[in-house]
């Protein structure tokens, strides 16, 4: 594990690969150079998560995209606005994934 002011990196094997989590939106030139070096010839896949969408990693062949998240305050859940059918077999789950 490598921990710096702006990022945390886990170096894994061929299967797990290298995982980088940006923890601050403003890596300096030295930290950015270290991030670049971490992706240079690693074993396995490389994934970087930037929750700030502020660090350009295009020079590493990486693109920015936002993962969907859902936030809701604790409390009772309202009844669904549409019919909900529970998928119990593989075929039903595959059909639900396609729709």
Uncertain segments: none
Distance between the termini: 41 Å
What is the helix content? 10-25%
Radius of gyration equals 19 Å
Provide the succession of SSEs.
EEEHEH
- Tell me the strand order in the biggest sheet: 1-2-3-4
Shape from CA axes?
A: elongated
Q: How is the biggest beta sheet arranged?
A: 4 strands, mixed
* Relative strand content: 15-25%
The overall strand count is 4
Question: Class by helix and strand content?
Answer: alpha+beta
Global mean pLDDT: 86
Continuous helix count:
2
Give a description of the structure.
The protein is of the alpha+beta class and about 100 residues long. The protein has a domain at about 1-60. It contains 2 helices and 4 strands. The protein has helices at about 30-40, 90-99, and strands at about 1-5, 5-10, 20, 45-50. It has a 4-stranded mixed beta sheet, covered by helices on one side. Helix 1 (about 30-40) links the parallel strand 3 (about 20) and strand 4. The relative contact order is 0.14. The model has no long low-confidence stretch (mean pLDDT about 85).
């Amino acid at each position: 594990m490598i921990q710096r002011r702006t990022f945390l990196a886990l170096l894994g094997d061929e299967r797990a690969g290298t995982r980088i989590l940006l923890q601050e939106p403003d890596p300096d030139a030295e930290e950015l150079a270290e991030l670049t070096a971490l992706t240079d010839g690693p074993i396995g896949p490389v994934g970087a998560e930037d929750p700030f969408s502020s660090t350009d990693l295009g020079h590493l062949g990486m693109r920015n995209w936002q993962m969907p998240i859902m936030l809701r305050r604790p409390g009772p859940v309202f009844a669904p606005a549409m019919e909900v059918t529970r998928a119990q077999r593989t075929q039903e789950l595959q059909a639900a994934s396609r729709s």
